[in-house]
Write a structure and sequence with these properties.
6-stranded antiparallel β-sheet, binds heme C
Length: 257
């Protein structure tokens, strides 16, 4: 019976031991909570950093032909990659344009469209690059007119520069998994939106604090009607994002080197 003295001791001091044990438990709980807040705040700051840096969102960027800055004329036309299925009902398939968190509409934006649908861009514009975006299951095709396509990295764009970004849904299987072609690239399905921006002298002033240089923005459906969220008066989010994410040093254009 060598445990007897110990049991007696425990019985005598049970109040003290209980207090000690609960203090220990409380300590553990506090430490756990603290480490949770620490990891939470780091993940928030990581997210903020990702949002505020100029880096592109996750995606596979495919350089087309020779880099845009060698000379615009060596680039293929915008229509170079064969187009797949067209949306049977493009209006139904049109996605909302990306919006900035925390910015509610309506925010200052030009009330009229001075950009204009770039007629014949598929033949006349140069294909600059293609992005496969896993986050929103899209393929984005970026083209520029000759003026824009000839600009070297780090240089500002001359007036008359126009960019187009075609947004396609990426083909998916029944479970929503993105399908790829033999080169590992996403397969374009419905063309849902045509985003355009144009630079002209004095453009962009109506965006006020969200102005991104002298660019104005607009979003069309493939049938050349306006996307409801990117129509005249509704394009503040475009300028805001290009202002903050592409930045002045890039003349507010997301360029790939
Ligand atoms: C949340 C940020 C964001 C918003 C909002 C946004 N864009 Fe962009 N835009 C991008 C990014 C990033 C790219 C580069 C392509 C890519 O990685 O998807 C881009 C590329 C473009 C391009 C190709 C030329 C370039 O600047 O690189 C055009 C044209 C364009 N956007 C127009 C628009 C229009 C029009 C709107 C509003 C209807 C808009 N964008 C809203 C982030 C944004």
């Amino acid at each position: 019976m060598r445990y007897l003295p110990m049991i007696k001791y425990i019985l005598k001091r049970w109040v003290k031991i209980l207090v000690l044990l609960s203090a220990l438990l409380l300590g553990f709980a506090l430490a756990e909570m603290l480490s949770m807040t620490i990891s939470l705040s780091t993940s928030i700051s990581v997210a903020q950093r990702q949002y505020s840096t100029r880096s592109h969102p996750p995606g596979v960027y495919v350089q087309v032909g020779r880099p845009a800055h060698t000379t615009g004329s060596t680039l293929p036309p915008c229509s170079a990659i064969p187009r797949l299925l067209q949306a049977s009902n493009p209006k139904a398939a049109a996605p909302l344009p990306p919006t900035l968190p925390g910015i509610s509409s309506p925010r200052p934006a030009p009330q009229i469209d001075r950009v204009g649908f770039p007629e014949n861009y598929r033949n006349e514009f140069k294909l600059i690059y293609v992005v496969d975006r896993p986050d929103n299951k899209q393929v984005r095709v970026i083209c520029g007119n000759d003026i824009a396509a000839a600009v070297k990295p780090g240089k500002t764009f001359p007036y008359g520069s126009v960019f187009v970004m075609e947004i396609y849904n990426a083909k998916q299987d029944a479970n929503g998994n993105i399908l790829k072609d033999e080169k590992g690239q996403y397969i374009r399905e419905a063309l849902t939106a045509i985003f355009v921006h144009r630079k002209e002298q004095g453009f962009g002033a109506d965006y006020l604090d969200d102005r991104s240089g002298e660019w104005e923005y607009i979003g069309y459906r493939p049938d050349k009607t306006y996307l409801p969220n990117a129509a005249p008066g509704k394009t503040n989010a475009c300028a805001s994002c290009h202002l903050r994410q592409a930045g002045k040093s890039e003349d507010y254009v997301f360029r790939k080197e």
